[in-house]
Design brief:
alpha+beta, 4-stranded antiparallel sheet, 3-stranded antiparallel sheet, 43% helix, 14% strand
Length: 277
Amino acid sequence: MPDPNPPDPPAADPTTPGPPAAAIRVNDRCIDEDAILREMQYHPAENVAAARHAAAEWLVIRALLLDRARALGLDSADDGADEAAAVQAVIEREVDVPAPAEAECRRYYDNNPARFRSADLVEAAHILLAAAPDDADGRAKAEAQAAELIDRLAAAPERFGELAQAHSACDSRHNDGRLGQLSRGDTVPEMETFLFNLEEGQISPVPVRTRYGVHVVRVDKRVAGRALPYEAVAGKVADYLQEASWRRAFRQYVQLLAGDARITGFDIAAAESPLVQ
């Protein structure tokens, strides 16, 4: 008689690989999983799935270009040793994008003023009360101490350097807590939010929490960015427009090749950003 309460089946071992993914085919070329895994090292991404997709996408594009090279008589080697040169030869021959005209560059410059400004700058100082992100007790004590220091500085702001020397865990304490001149991206985002919103001479009204601990922050000087003249950025504008045009042209070219090819196992039409290695 069968057991009315059979044991539960064993849980799947998460370390056991699942069934291999189906190979991708581009015309007569096969792109197997091993090739994709080898290619993944050249496509860093936020997760494994994104890296695998980028690697597979490039291998499909490469196969399309190699087949085109063969059709044009540009594949000088049959053993694959010169495949990179064949791919480059196809691209140089068939993806031709003219340099942007002066009027186009000036129009882009005029329509995107925020892209062509010098950086906003601040001169700042801080007092760092160090505490690890996972140390709840340490961070609570640091926040309480920072709040106390802010209260003391509200009554005597001229004591900032003295208090930095006495309490800060940052080497800047030897310079009264001064951090020098900073632009966006020079500090962690949490600190940057305060640095670029405080007024000159203002001390943060609340403790500033970052991965390093808790800070008391003071902004000493602000220097607003200014619009850069077109002549100073003309080369940058032209390079940007040339690169953008080339990417659009390359995408369209790949789609044309894909339309004439037999592709299984990968939807090249859904891909958005081929990367030429």
